[in-house]
Amino acid sequence: MTFHWDVLVKYLPDLLEGLRLTLMLTALGMTVAATLGLAVAIARLLKIPVVSQAAAFYVFFFRNTPLLVQLFFLFYVLPEAGVVIDPLPIGVLSLGTYYGAYTAEAYRGGFKAVPREQWETGTSLRFSTLQVLTLVIIPQAVRPVVPVLGNYVISMFKESALLSTITIYELFGTARLLSSLTWEYVTLFTAVAVLYFCISYPSSIAVRRLERRLRWA
Amino acid sequence: MSPELAFAIETVLEAAFVTVLVTVSSGALGVIVAIIGGSARISPYRSVRIVAGVYVEFFRGTSVLVQMFWLFFVLPMVGITLPAWLAGTIALSLNFGAYGSEIVRGAIESIPQGQWDAATALGLGGFRRMRLVVLPQALPIILPSLVNNLVDLLKACSLLSLITVSDLTQAGQILIETRMVTIAGGYALILVCYFILALPVVELGRRTERWFGRHLTEREQTA
């Protein structure tokens, strides 16, 4: 059995529909990850007792265990705990918490790069800690981190294929379902791989360009 | 010890062994792929560069899961049937190798032109120049990054369970199905197992980084 163009033409609309869901999941997941990561990084920066240690452990644990098992854990445990939600929010939550650990580390690097004088200047202008943080530090810390976040968006886009294991029919899930029905594994899996590549490769070039522009700006 | 507990421990240990074995073997294979791939990307031959470039970009542009499923489901359709563990190991090696190729390429490109010229002046040809002069200097840059990528490889091994390999993730599912542990307990147990396996790799990464960092500065001082 080989690649069948007619099969591709027939199922392409379904695959594109799956791609749309993949992109949506990635956007939502990254929103969670970027927000959570920033909160975690700030907690560690301010050295809030207990919270800071918990944040450090969260980052270390989530970065060093597989996303697949984290996903299964949330998928099977949340309903068991009485929180019955459907797979979509669980998928977004899982992507968000996994990549949140990575973005937290990226932000931490960004915070480290802001010179101490910026804090001192802010304080001497009688800014409160919150004001220094939101008006002075965060804008400077986040800027160099943007390309790193961009790379995580691309990773998340590719890795979101894992959500097919919890009955979410995103791009890869759609291909798995359709190929198990039609036995057209060659056509559908190849098409899906090409679709992922067509989005992630240009995106990674765009991120590289952004990185270069930020460096020289 | 009750027979149930003995069964549970045996299942988890055996599965952990499979996970470690696959991580180590695909890591070793991946390093070889990375050195070949990284060198090929800066080859003087255009065709070699293009092939290597397509390989690296394609494997970096799609996820391991898609690659693994492709090898596991598509190859049998064209008459090549691989056992699940082999298809998984190949996918992991090629994926690890693609990321590794970029590390190797970056490191090789960071070696000053003078080193290449000096090697040529000493009459060393392409392969020997690479092996005796360029790679030994690139290694301190390559190794720490590769070890750091090893954690990702270990985590990616969890995907083997999806193509029917009895790895750690599947062991957890067996324990859950046999009602030995609750669902929450089973997955929590597996998460902790992966975490424990990752700890020495993380530590090794830190040490190689420190060791090579010190080594580099020492050499720069004596130079």
Helix content of chain A: over 70%
Beta fraction of the residues of chain A? Answer: under 5%
The shape of chain A, in one word, is globular
- Estimate the helix proportion of chain B, in percent: over 70%
Classification by helices and strands of chain B = mainly alpha
Structural notes for this entry:
The complex is a heterodimer of chains A (217) and B (223). Helices cover 81% and strands 0% of the residues of chain A. Chain A contains nine helices and no strands. In chain A, helix 8 runs antiparallel to helix 9. The model of chain A has no long low-confidence stretch (mean pLDDT 93). The A-B interface holds A 1-2, 61, 63-70, 72-73, 76-77, 80-81, 158-159, 161-162, 165, 172, 176, 179, 185-186, 189-190, 192-193, 196-197, 200-201, 204 and B 57-58, 60-63, 65-67, 69-70, 73-74, 77-78, 151, 155-159, 161-162, 169, 172, 182-184, 187-188, 190-191, 194-195, 198-199, 202.
What is shown here, in short?
Chain A is mostly helical and 217 residues long. Chain A has 9 helices and no strands. In chain A, 81% of the residues lie in helices and 0% in strands.
Keywords:
heterodimer, A: 217 residues, mainly alpha, globular, B: 223 residues, 8 helices
List the helices and strands and how they pair.
The complex is a heterodimer of chains A (217) and B (223).
Chain A: H1 5-45, H2 51-63, H3 67-80, H4 87-113, H5 116-124, H6 129-142, H7 146-159, H8 171-182, H9 185-216
Chain B: H1 3-41, H2 46-61, H3 64-77, H4 84-109, H5 113-121, H6 126-156, H7 168-177, H8 183-222
Helix pairs in contact in B: 1-2, 1-4, 1-6, 1-7, 2-4, 3-4, 4-6, 5-6, 6-8, 7-8
